[in-house]
Amino acid sequence: MMQSILLAIGAYNDWDILDMHAGFDLTQLASVSDLAMVDMARRAAVKAVAYKGHKPFGAAEMDLLPALEVIANYGVGYDAIDVAAAKQRGVRVTNTPDVLNDDVADLAVGMLLAFTRNMMTNAEWLARGDWAEKGDPPLARKFSGARVGIMGLGRIGREIADRLAAFKMEIHYHSRSAKDTPEGWVWHPTPEGLAASCDYMVVALIGGKQTEGYVSRDVIAAMGADAVIANISRGSTIDEEALLEALEAKRIRGAALDVFRVEPQLDPRFQKLSNVFLQPHQGSATIETRKAMGALQRANIRAHLAGEPLLTPVN
């Protein structure tokens, strides 16, 4: 029986590639931009794409694959894929939710702790020998017991809130409607209302056009001068220029960021700031979770090609 052609786009780990070779005739591309370079006859036979990337996968790219039936995205955020264009062409789209929730939530808490307790600067203080020569470093700030606001109480947002509740924090959140939450959690119908009511605000929105710039200049302006913002969603969810201006002018205390508007060439102004804690988009970056994401991605592809229901459909 002839193997189905699987087109894998992106930088995959060896364990993913090994499994893709099991049952598939595999073609690998570094980027969706390289799609037109694939032999036309081979492109015409591709039914499934395993996609791992942030470059747009739109109508033009889909039209280069006339037999395409399914795009399985590696990651919970699928904003790079034009789902409307896929639907018009009868192409199914899947993602990998839930398997990465814990890691992303863990990182959100870790970044806030690292920022608040000056962990990076304290480590540098020790490494330079300043502890022995100059004494203790400057005092940090207390984390437990503060007010935290979750911007977007979806799967990941809820995991973050549950963790921060263990830090004796007062939980506030914003979503389109009030959710079923533990007693005492406070829903805010507007993002500005949430921003004005918390010491820490964690952005956990989905990506895409519907949330682009959702944390707007007005939302940032509503934050107090002692407030800290963290983002583990997408760089597009925050008005980055407004955030940089607020950080540079110290209109807010600081930011802990894992995502940026442009990656990996983020705005150099960030790296000149002393009131930030920055990570290179590492939310789901553990061996265990990356293996689980890849396995779910391929399980969706195999289910579709076998005529079975998709495990995690987007459309």
Report the C-alpha radius of gyration, rounded.
22 Å
What's the total count of β strands?
A: 12
Overall average residue pLDDT: 96
**Terminal residue distance:** 30 Å
Count of distinct structural domains: 2
Biggest sheet record: 7 strands, parallel
CATH superfamily of the largest domain: NAD(P)-binding Rossmann-like Domain
Tell me what you see in this structure:
The protein has 315 residues and is α/β, with parallel strands linked by helices. It has two domains: 4-98 and 287-305, NAD(P)-binding Rossmann-like Domain (Rossmann fold, 3-Layer(aba) Sandwich); 101-278, Rossmann fold. Helix content is 32%, strand content 16%. The protein is built from twelve helices and twelve strands. Helix 1 (14-20) links the parallel strand 1 and strand 2 (24-29). Helix 1 runs parallel beside helix 12 (287-305) and helix 5 (101-116) packs across helix 8 (155-165). The protein is globular, with a radius of gyration of 22 Å. The relative contact order is 0.13.
